[in-house]
Amino acid sequence: MDFGIGFLTNNIMLPILDFFYGIVPSYGLAIVALTLLIRFALYPLNAGSIRNMRRMKITQPLMQKKVKEIQERHKDDPAKLQQEMGGVYKEFGNPLAGCFPVVLQMPILFALFATLRGSPFADITYPVNLQILPQEAIEQVQPQAFSAKPSSLYIADGEHFPVAAVLPGGNRIGVGDTTAIRLQTPDGKSVQQLAKEFANDPAVFVPQWEVTKGQEFVKVDENGQITALAPGDVTVQAKVKGLAANKGFLFIKELGRIGAMGDDGEIHWDILGMVLFFGISLYVNQLLSGQSSSDNPQQETITKLTPVLFSGMFLFFPLPAGVLLYMVLANVFQTAQSFILSKEPLPENIQALVDDQEAKAVSADRGALAFEPGSRKAAPKEGTQSKKGSNQSSKTASKGRAKSNKASGKSSSTRSKGNKKSGGSSKKKVSNR
């Protein structure tokens, strides 16, 4: 019994999808409801991962510095090294703590992804590998029935059955022999019988047959009848139309549409729009969840390139429109969750680190004052200051003396001139006498 992704898909995802479709008969709304339900159920696990990333963005530089110091200090003492490392992880948190919630939710997300890639949203393919042998070799082979892995097939709204490709005589055929591939349920009901019983239009579920490998070794007709022509390995594929593949939702024309461009060259703008929006929402989510760092240019480059690479991947490896709808909704939900969690208060020790980093950033922006530690503007020494002061005072005094000398020189010259004048007048007076 399968307890993997197929079990989760058939026993959890599809019943929930049928439940929502029964409430609102729209497969697009059923995808929205199923996506939101799963994301809300995984909210606690995802929140733990986002909180851890937010803490690691703040503590990583200091944590790396401490780890390096501890490794250098206790490189010869593994026991002490392990003890000290445990203390660091206890103080700052374990960087790997956010991985466990992600790993735990992966099976559920893979099952949801597989559900939306299968019926009723996409065409279902049933590949069968055959081995064509010469007649003398086939006579020595014991015939044994062959059955491929079953896939759930929607025949009508809310009606789906596990259908597998079956070869009653086995998948080894002799040259010149014929056999037929049957698509049937485990209890033997064929797809044609199910379609007549449940489908509104049974012709929709007529399989389309194609030889995808070894076309020169076999031929197959429209009823799945295979004729072996020559020895070799062959792959024959049956394709059944998805029930909701051609149904639209909002701006999406077909939920089963694949690729940004059709076979006729027509551009599918609905697909392109969802791919573009997915890339934008992924970038915003990275910023909010703390995956970018302006202090680390390499991490900043990765943050910018990741949305471009993922969006481009969907253009080269296209997915059905219904799957893209789920991925866009899941990204929007996670972006909103990251925004809400970014407003939560940090633990006290982490908040202290944030405050310290902000204080250092402010100090670096305005520059340190003369009296603050680390300032390059050192106060002048007393001796130097007094020396400068005495030099300035001596210069001032010398300037003052020079001015006074000039003034005294002027006054003495004036007096001498006056004396000369008075001497001349007295001589004149004596001569007159």
UniProtKB/TrEMBL annotation:
Membrane topology designation: Multi-pass membrane protein
Record gene name: yidC
Protein's name in the database: Membrane protein insertase YidC
Family: Belongs to the OXA1/ALB3/YidC family.
Region (Disordered): 370-433
GO terms, molecular function: membrane insertase activity
Gene Ontology biological process terms, A to Z: protein insertion into membrane; protein transport
Transmembrane spans: 20-45, 267-288, 308-333
Main localisation: membrane
Compartments where found: Cell inner membrane; Membrane
Biased composition annotated in UniProt, kind: Polar residues: 386-396
Annotated Gene Ontology cellular component terms: plasma membrane
Keywords: Cell membrane, Chaperone, Membrane, Protein transport, Transmembrane, Transmembrane helix, Transport
Pfam families named in the record: 60KD_IMP
Residue ranges, compositional bias (Low complexity): 405-416
Domain Membrane insertase YidC/Oxa/ALB C-terminal, first and last residues per copy: 27-342
Top-level taxon: Bacteria
